[in-house]
Amino acid sequence: MTEKVAANFADVPPENDFVTDYDRQHLKLYARLLDAEADGAPLADIVKILFGIDAENEPERARRLHAGHLGRAHWMAENGYRNLIAG
Predict the structure, then answer these.
(1) How far apart are CA 85 and CA 44, in angstroms?
(2) How far apart are CA 45 and CA 22, in angstroms?
(3) Rounded to an integer, what distance in angstroms lies between the CA atom of residue 4 and that of residue 27?
(4) Residues 6+ apart with CB under 8 A from 80
(5) Verdict on whether the full-model pTM lies above 0.90
(6) Which one-letter DSSP state was computed for residue 51?
(7) Per-residue pLDDT tens for 25-58?
């Protein structure tokens, strides 16, 4: 992980049961989060690189951002991709 992916992100990702414009704009972020999870990357590294957040200075926000967006990434990988395929 070396590049920052998401410059403009919400503290809480969408919770809709359909793919949103936000999701489309953040597909790379979602993929990077899933990769980081699979690699066992530390939370502090993930949020620093992908969100530009210092987990030591903002631990709650770091956890909230990571958990929310990782959850959305899983939803996209398991369900949301169908909406993308269908157009």
Answers:
(1) 33
(2) 23
(3) 13
(4) 18, 19, 23
(5) no
(6) I
(7) 999 999 999 999 999 999 999 999 999 999 999 9
